[in-house]
Design brief:
By secondary structure, the chain is of the alpha+beta class. The protein contains six helices and 19 strands. The two termini are about 30 Å apart. About 40% of the residues are buried. Bound molecules: fe (ii) ion.
């Protein structure tokens, strides 16, 4: 019987089941329902940090309840949105607005291919790109500069550091789509000490990847994806274990090394890390919620038989996406 550290709660008490795939990580919790008690919030926090992936299947929360849950788990990343500040730029299309055009849930974005009557997409670009390859939300994070035309003049930048957790809520039309999540912790920890030490000297350049591994369809290129950043490949997951911070669709080179060396490294990681042993496949149902680590994990959207999903399907599919800073959880560093 698996007991949750520091508590008398067992996995059985909360209907927690280990997920298939993702090797040692990932758990599904079925016995929790809204409104959550404080100890249940603590439990979800604990499980996210310990397991890197927590799935709450068909818990059917409203958008308000989902946002409220994210808010209780940590600090929601708001991307510079404020409840009292009117949205005038394109973010208004993928945010829920009050009667004054201010965001009701700062930082919550709709991921969908749905359009309004004027032809504007009602979601962020990943929701209306038929291809959504491996990624986390690292690209250009602290370097993104967006000019705002509202009364707050100046430059809008993404927040630092990278929020450790992504929360996704399946709202409608999700059946038939899959989110794959790959953790890069177990395979790193299985490496020999000499290889670990080699990795510790590697710094990767993040930028725009074209060709087979690109994230989105060719006509969707985000300015922020083209901004270069140099980051160490070894980082600590939220459970305190070391793993790789890598994404085949976002990393482009080893800092200071040749293209050949990067290509060899990429091939090695794709073979030994991004493989079935470490990938969890979430077959979506409306009402599901996923919390996943993004420091040492990558994720992608796939259809049931192929990697892309047709626009027709995406225009009926809606997910809510929130990023959460939870770095002080369970004293994980
Ligand atoms: Fe994503």
């Amino acid at each position: 019987m698996y007991k949750i550290e520091g508590t008398n709660i067992t996995f059985e008490d909360v209907g927690a089941l280990k997920l298939k795939g993702l090797n040692a990580y990932g758990i599904e919790v079925t016995n929790l329902s809204y409104p959550f008690e404080e100890r249940e919030i603590e439990l979800i926090k604990y499980l996210i940090a310990d397991q890197l992936l927590v799935v709450l299947p068909k818990c059917n929360l409203s958008v308000d309840q989902f946002y409220n849950l994210c808010d209780q788990l940590g600090v929601v990343s708001t991307y510079g949105q404020y409840r009292s500040r009117k949205l005038l730029d394109n973010t208004k299309f993928y945010s829920y607005l009050d009667k004054d055009d201010c965001p009701i849930y700062p930082g919550l974005v709709r991921v969908t291919g749905e359009k309004d009557s004027k032809g504007n997409f009602l979601g962020i670009a990943p929701g209306h790109s038929t291809l959504l390859n491996w990624h986390n939300d690292q690209a250009g994070r602290d370097a993104v500069k967006v000019k705002r035309n509202d009364k707050i003049k100046g430059i809008w930048s993404y927040e630092r550091p990278l929020p450790e957790v992504i929360a996704l809520q399946g709202v409608k039309g999700t059946k038939g789509s899959i989110t794959e999540i790959c953790q890069l912790v177990d395979s790193y920890n299985a490496e020999d000490l000499s290889i670990k030490n080699w990795f510790k000297n590697v710094r990767l350049e993040w930028g725009y990847v074209d060709g087979e591994d690109k994230i989105y369809d060719s006509d969707v290129v985000h300015k922020e994806d083209k901004i270069k950043r140099i980051l160490p490949i070894v980082t600590k997951a939220i459970n305190g274990k070391e793993g790789l911070h890598f994404s085949p669709s976002q990393t482009v080179a080893i800092d200071g090394k040749s293209e050949k060396e990067y290509n060899e490294l990429k091939e090695y990681i794709m073979k030994n890390y991004v493989n079935q042993n470490y990938i969890y496949r979430h077959y979506w149902n409306d009402g599901d919620i996923i919390f996943t680590d993004q420091k040492t994990s990558i994720h992608r959207r796939v259809g049931t038989h192929k990697e892309t999903i047709p626009m027709q399907k995406l225009s009926k599919r809606l997910l809510h996406h929130v990023e959460i800073h939870i770095h002080n959880l369970n004293n994980a560093s």
